[in-house]
Amino acid sequence: MPATRQSRVIDCLGVASGWPSADRRHSSYLYRLGGAQVMIDCGEGASGAYGGLGFLPDDLDHLVFSHQHSDHVGGFSMLMQGMWVNQRRKPLAIHAPSKAIPALRAWLEATLLFEGLLGFPIEWKPLIPGETVSMGELRLTPFLTCHLAALERTFGDQHPGTSFEAFSFLLEGDGRRVAHSADIGAVSDLDPLLQRPLDLLVCEVAHVEAAELFDRLRGASLEELVLIHLEQPLWEDRDALRQRAEEQLPGVRVRVAMDGERIPIR
Ligand SMILES: [Zn+2]
Questions:
Q1: Ligand 1 centre distance from Cα of residue 38 (Å)
Q2: 8 A C-beta contact, residue 64 and residue 72
Q3: How many angstroms is it from 7 CA to the middle of ligand 1?
Q4: Confidence band of 4 (pLDDT split at 50, 70, 90)
Q5: Distance 74 CA to ligand 1 centre (A)
Q6: What phi, psi does 154 have (nearest 5°)?
Q7: Cα of 111 to ligand 1 centre, how many Å?
Q8: Measured at the alpha carbon of residue 138, what is the angle toward residues 28 and 163, in degrees to the nearest 5?
Q9: Where are the domains of the chain?
Q10: Whether this model's pTM surpasses 0.85
Q11: Which class does domain 3-264 fall in?
Q12: How far is the CA of 72 from the centre of ligand 1 (A)?
């Protein structure tokens, strides 16, 4: 097993929220756990950030999309173009909300990245709520969140060409349990992730109030909290946010993730 597969880390490729940011790339997180290498979301800038880590073109095993907002999918076609020009050969599994798959395929077509040209097969896998996917020794379970519920109520009927599903994820491997909120709509979206003790929670704080989040996490069995997806005013005041979290969650290690940060899964 190559050394890169033995690591138990998260590389934060982009931690920004949905607003353009001068000093952060958009959502993308590379998990290495259970011998698998899994990218969750692929916001703008992900391909360059990934390339900068020095992996080989065949190293990425799985690409997972939480939902279809641009700050989570905007780097997809460039990541695929990078794999094409770098001559990836290994099949790539892409997991996405089921109705997003035709939209993502059309996007590759529109950007001249024909599946017959790429040089490696794509295995398209629809995410099914609550259904665990095995990725070697890593297990990933997607849970629906209400992040896009209001948008769906207003626009769902008129826009059948995309998906209004949004997912959070539980990752289990190497005896560790890690949760990744992606984008949520309410603090209660975290409930399925918090049912059992977590070693690490990577949680967004753009669509929920920090105070409400810390209230929910108080009493949860959690070793470490990594805050992501901060809107600019909160980002500029991130030390204060971290301190508030530490005060309200005694015993929990807290950090606010930066682009390029490598976080060990302890
Ligand atoms: Zn987002």
A1: 18
A2: no
A3: 27
A4: low
A5: 11
A6: -85, -40
A7: 23
A8: 50
A9: 3-264
A10: yes
A11: alpha beta
A12: 6
Instruction: Quote the percentage of the chain above a pLDDT of 70.
Output: 98
pLDDT higher than threshold 50 for residue 1 = no
Separation of 68 CA from ligand 1 center, angstroms?
9
- Dist. CA 163 → ligand 1 center (Å): 15
Please give the structure tokens belonging to residue 265: 């899964």
Across the chain, which distance is largest between two alpha carbons, in Å? 54
How is 184-253 classified by DSSP, letter by letter?
-SSGGGGGGGSSS-EEEEEEE-SSS-HHHHHHHHTTS-EEEEEEE---HHHHHTHHHHHHHHHHHSTT-E
CA of 224 to the centre of ligand 1 (A): 22
Gap from CA of 116 to ligand 1 centroid (Å): 31
* Residue located via tokens 């958009």: 26
The per-residue pLDDT for range 95-115, each reduced to its tens digit, is 999 999 999 999 999 999 998
In the predicted model, is pLDDT for residue 3 greater than 80? no
Residue 173 near residue 32 (C-beta atoms within 8 A): no
Nearest to 14 by CA among 252, 189, 229, 164: 229
Ligand 1 centre distance from Cα of residue 133 (Å): 23
